[in-house]
Amino acid sequence: MYQSERKQEILSILSECTYATVEDLANKLHISASSIRRDLSELASRGLVVRSYGGAELSNSQKRFVPFSARRHKNSAVKRAMAETAETFIKSGDVVFLDDSSSAYFTAEKLCTRKDITVVTTSVDVLFLLSQSDVTTYSAGGLLNRENRTCLTGSFADSIIRKFHADWCIFSVKSLDAGGVLSDCVEPGVAVLNTMMECAEKTMFLCDSSKLGSRSTFVQCNISDLDVVLSNADIPAFLTSLPENVQFVQV
Asked: Strands across the sheet with 228-231, in order?
């Protein structure tokens, strides 16, 4: 296969799954990982894809939903580091809301050994993970979202979430712009996360560096509405205006 054909195949694959790892692309195209990396670098220089740790996505993908199976592998080392730090904020007896983000899933992995907390989640994957632990776990119930099959949404989920007063809402979204606006691409998920944030004493945003400098379709909130932001990036340096009430932790 010629290099130009490979690049078109890479773009075609990314148009279907939005994000793919280098390993996935190499296996699908039956070529070496080093060749894939060279192709991705050239496509990135032309503004067609955005490189990230271990893979790439289309440059306009911030407005498109990425399946959990792909999100779980994107920046996974960074997400695990953030999850490890997030777990240190959780005290004995705390009630924790976890959304359907891959970052929240990695946090759930860290919480699996805790027997002294309660988790309420909208994530089917987090429910399955915690079902194998001693963590007291509640499902938010609700409607299985058609676009995001791992997220429970709708009025039923909203009503169940409102029955709890949580100590923490730990979540992530797709985008953070320099003005401090958090946004995402699936409206039902935005709505149910708003309820979780409303019913929590404190909120924690897990923000890996791939989310910076972009905007998605639906506004979630402003960074000044949050209590803690964990990131591998220097978020205060990225923001045009720094809210004084937010604790920024770089991992």
From this structure: 136-139, 118-121, 95-98, 166-171, 200-206, 228-231, 247-250
If asked whether residues 26 and 88 sit together in one domain, one would say no
- The CA–CA distances, whole Å, from 137 to 41, 60, 80, 106, 148 equal 43, 36, 21, 16, 21
Domain end marker among 18, 35, 59: 59
Has residue 92 got a pLDDT over 90? yes
β-sheet bridge partners, residue 50: 57
Structure tokens at 111: 């919480």
Identify whether 67 is part of a domain: no
Give the C-alpha distances (Å, rounded to integers) separating 178 from 53, 64, 202.
22, 20, 23
Of 12, 32, 59, the domain-final residue: 59
**Residue 65 CA: distances (Å) to CA of 14, 58, 175:** 12, 12, 12
Question: Does the predicted TM-score (pTM) go above 0.90?
Answer: no
* Side-chain-facing half-sphere of 208: CA atoms under 13 Å: 22
Are 88 and 121 in a shared domain?
A: yes
Residue 216 pLDDT: 87
Residue 172 sits in the same domain as residue 241: yes
